[in-house]
Amino acid sequence: MLRKMSSFNDSAQALLFDPRELAPVYPESMITRPFPFNAFYDIDQVPDVDAHAYQLDLSGLVKGKRIWTLDELHALPQQGQVTRHICIEGWSAIGKWGGVRFSDFLLRAGADTTAKYVALHCADNYWTSIDMPTALHPQTLLTLTYDGDILPAKYGFPMKLRVPTKLGYKNPKHIVAISVTNEFPGGYWENQGYNWFGGS
């Protein structure tokens, strides 16, 4: 019964979601310093990802390039945003994120943007998934920097998905693989009962 109610909630949120409506942006004077660390493990367990060996694996409904290096990702056009991260635990914080607009990346990589889902898998064994309209939202960002510097490990190096229209658990860190699919992918917390759509 709870899963049915959650599924109904997901459907309702999806109907209400406007892919053209932007999340609020803030002046840099409002950035939360220090920005909080948050994960399902302690800070001393943050994964150590080798930047030189790093490869982003893109799979599923994709016709173009499937392996991306950090240098290639940094060479793509970059965007910036100062937006609020809202945690399901009840706190929020404003941060300055920079990186590649996710919609631009998916189109450049030849992803099928008519597919239903995008799944993201991480070096810390976390995973989540989002709906394609959210993936294509203009503020959804493959984050490579924080506050003007290379993304620190505690915030998700080498890459975090920043989704200001969703709750924090839909913003995965340490991303190593992305899959475009029509099969429902679930997620680490979602499979334990969290709402899948996770809109903020």
- Describe the sheet with the most strands: 5 strands, mixed
Order of strands side by side in the largest beta sheet?
2-1-10-5-6
- The CATH architecture: Alpha-Beta Complex
Report the helical percentage. 10-25%
Report on the architecture of this protein.
With 200 residues, the protein is α+β, with helices and mostly antiparallel strands. The protein has a single domain, classed as Alpha-Beta Complex (Sulfite Oxidase, Chain A, domain 2). A five-stranded mixed sheet has the order 2-1-10-5-6. The radius of gyration is 16 Å and the shape is globular.
Task: Give the SSE layout.
Elements: H1 2-16, E1 56-60, E2 67-68, H2 70-75, E3 79-86, E4 92-101, H3 102-108, E5 117-122, E6 127-131, H4 132-135, E7 141-146, E8 149-150, E9 160-162, E10 175-181
Parallel strand pairs: 1-10
Antiparallel strand pairs: 1-2, 3-4, 4-7, 5-6, 5-10, 7-8, 7-9
